[in-house]
Specification:
It contains three helices and no strands. The protein is an all-alpha fold and 148 residues long.
Length: 148
């Protein structure tokens, strides 16, 4: 039995594989965009539920409610400023163990870490949405190639 090396040989299999991969890529992209949107919504909802307002002396977003990545970042920044003012410029690690201001620095550090976690969650959600869009475009391209 002779092997067929003509250009048409295996075309149906390649087209089926390309179409299947294209559809799977589109589905994966849609799932990533939906997950990104859900993450963005949940983080926004949880931040807004805290009813936090950025103080007027903040370098950015002064007076705005903390319900997004910019508000969370600006609030974390002003918390650091206020903490350092309260502790004479010393961080938690630099204060003596018996210093009563160490609790202030510790709470500020915890609050900042929590707010920065929100900022990172927004970034990851945006990245996931972007990658989801790339998957969709890749899937559309693969399914278009499979039709030829």
């Amino acid at each position: 039995m002779a092997t067929d090396y003509s250009p048409e040989a295996g075309t149906a299999e390649v087209n089926t594989t390309a179409r299947t991969m294209g559809i799977l890529s589109i589905v994966a992209g849609i799932i990533m965009i939906l997950a990104a949107g859900l993450t963005w919504f949940v983080v926004t909802d949880q931040l807004a539920a805290e009813n936090i307002t950025v103080p007027p002396d903040a370098a950015c977003a002064a007076g705005d409610s903390v319900d997004g990545p910019i508000g969370a970042y600006c609030m974390a920044d002003i918390i650091n400023t206020h903490s350092l003012e309260s502790t004479n410029g010393l961080t938690y690690a630099e204060l003596d163990r018996d210093d009563p201001l160490r609790d202030v620095a510790q709470n500020a550090s915890f609050l900042r870490a929590s707010l920065f976690t929100s900022v990172v969650a927004y970034g990851v959600a945006a990245m996931a949405a972007g990658i989801g869009l790339v998957f969709i475009l890749l899937g559309v391209g693969l399914t278009a190639v499979a039709k030829r």
